[in-house]
């Protein structure tokens, strides 16, 4: 494939990475087997509305249960395959699984949008919007129940085509979010042209709140930016009650993180949702006044 070839070309000039290139090729090969062998699955992590605690939706996160290496986090293999056409196979898997889950939860009386992470290459792949339309029809689900998370970097590659593709997706009523906001280099000039509904503020800033004043000003600026655009802000990586209450107080709309819940299997998520009656009640912060 193109990715293998370019990785090998690169290795010619950088002999020190040859070993990792060989590792990459091994991962690529076993990924194909993994899909055939049912080693891939999705976990679901809740997103909650800060003002009310209402559970708003879930993010689908890919898991690879490798037969010899054990469970592999997505960061151990996604970055390696993002440059190759294999990422399409992985994205198709995640989308299909998520759509199937939305429709099965819907039949069980649980109606929540589920977000799938999308790579740059997917977004600009010809026919992607048509594929999404066909998938929604096949599972008889509304576009409003499917969310796509796209990282900032992905959006900046080919602005005009990206806007065109995203507009087609929003015509299907699919929700578009910017993931890891603050870590890329998005041009504020372009941001308002994108048909996005949600800005997900990267956990590297969220986790340093409220003690780190620099992080606080970035998070506050991102929330203000979202609100000025008429959209919502979500804070990623909320791990404790102090951060949760801080975010609620500054008017951030949504939160996601270990405080609310770790990513759960589909069945665990369903039981967790019902055990809370659909509302997360945060513990009191350990100290007041931040
Ligand atoms: P992401 O989309 O930014 O997902 C958030 C990551 O932060 C997840 O890691 C999640 O488990 C983790 N996380 C959530 N809450 C907390 C918290 O309170 N503290 C800490 N320390 N971490 C938290 P995960 O599952 O390892 O996924 C890593 C990345 O892999 C994701 O980042 C996403 O970019 C990518 N990814 C996951 N699934 C897929 C997929 O199906 N397709 C593609 N293309 N990428 C995926
Ligand atoms: Mg994400
Ligand atoms: Mg993120
Ligand atoms: Mg990430």
From TrEMBL:
Residues 24-277 form the EAL domain. Keywords: Membrane, Transmembrane, Transmembrane helix. This is Sensor domain-containing phosphodiesterase. It comes from Desulfofustis limnaeus.
